[in-house]
Amino acid sequence: MTEEKNTVLVWTEYQTATISPAPAILALGYSLYENFSNYVDVEFPSPKTAGDWLFTPQGWVGTIPVTETFTVSIQPKAPLANIFKMWEVAYRLRGFKFLDGIIESDSLADFYQNLAKIFVNKVFDRARKGLYKEYLGRSDRLSYVTGRLDIRRLAAEPWRVELDCSYEEHTADVEENQILCWTLSVIARSGLCSDEILSRVRKAYRELLGCITPLPVPPQACIGRLYNRLNDDYEALHGLCRFFLEHRGPTHQQGDRTMMPFLMDMARLFELFVAEWLILHLPARYELKQQHTVSFGSKNEVKFRMDAVIKDKDTGMPVCVLDTKYKVPDSADSGDIHEVRSYAESIGCTESLLVYPIELHTPLYINAGKIRTRSLTFRLDSDLDDSGKIFMENLFSGIG
Question: What are the tens digits of pLDDT across the range 120-134?
Fold first, then answer.
């Protein structure tokens, strides 16, 4: 292989890439093994590999700037258009008009860059209208009186010139805006944006720094927030923030640059997508509980966390347990079967389901004891609306 500056290696998830040994490939292999072994399985040259390097992406897609010589682009097995549609559903952004046309991106990196452009433009729009503000309680020592004066402390320390005051400040330095600020910093360090977009991202970040404290924010902060008529447009912004914060890879130093790869966990995306699809399409009599947790033991030391549980709204009783498996096996794994049946037993449910993105060669159907276990398919390699319709029909053919 000829060494070239910034060569992009295009791989596909779960498909092994075979590369002959070379000095540059040695650096590539060691860097992937040391920094990205959770995302790409690396087999060193040996008699077993016929002297070649073997690289197998493990269910993550996106872009990894690995060395000064190589960038790895991992493509999904499903069509890109379907990945974008899954993302819209999973992150509850379906129907937002500003996303029209984004599914026509040519690659995941292009998708990231287009989404960054949309995000920064929406931040500028909100900044022009005025950032959302709240009244927050403050306590400080001031040279003047504002709010409520702490008479007790003043009497105890009468020699102090400063006055202890408690007051409310109308400030934009609230978590709603801190999420935006932190997300801009993550995008700026991704290395995936063109100079033009990067310049706007940095400009927006500097503008927010004038009134916002740049605090690290976890992706979970974007979920389950309450909005009102003054900040309802933040719901879409925080949905975009969640995407950027959840799909950044591990930061590591490469030369004099700090790299932050873009990596999408397809197993997590599949889980979110199936759950949100069910929420949108379940009959009115049912409701879905995501990440349902049941604890056991005297100190609740044993916990079962289920991907999704469908319940009857009227009775509150569980109808079925679903566990998504982003795998392409010939048949269901015995460990997965035992796991989902244990979930069902723990909540008194008689129906347990394993959901795959592709039809198993040997479909699962076990009707033993009080629990029935089946495999279902939500195909990602065809039209998602058609796949969803078939998925729902097969789901309710068993539970009524």
Answer: 999 999 999 999 988
Three-state SS across 342-353? HHHHHCCCCEEE
pLDDT tens by residue, 21-40: 999 899 999 999 998 898 99
Place of tokens 């699809």: 277
In contact, 359 and 382? CB cutoff 8 Å: no
Structure tokens at 323: 């566990």
Report the relative pairing of strands 7-12 and 70-75 from DSSP bridges: parallel
Looking at the DSSP bridge assignments, the partners of residue 227 are none
CA angle, 341 then 347 then 353, to 5°: 35
Please spell the DSSP secondary structure of 209-249, one letter per residue.
HTTS------GGGGSS----TTTTTHHHHHHHHHHHHHTB-
Q: Do the beta carbons of residue 127 and residue 110 sit within 8 Å?
A: no
CA distances from 61 to 71, 149, 360 (A): 13, 57, 23
Q: Choose among 87, 73, 81, 36: nearest CA to 242.
A: 87
Q: Please state, as a whole number, how many other Cβ atoms lie within 10 Å of the Cβ of residue 61.
A: 25
Contact by Cβ (8 Å): 341, 373: yes
309 and 292 Cβ atoms separated by less than 8 Å: yes
Instruction: Give the integer Cα–Cα distance in Å for 339 and 232.
Output: 40
What are the helix (H) ranges across the chain?
23-35, 80-90, 108-129, 151-156, 175-188, 195-209, 234-246, 266-281, 334-346, 384-399
Taking CA atoms, 350 is separated from 322, 333, 343, in Å, by 12, 20, 10
- Name the pTM for this structure: 0.75
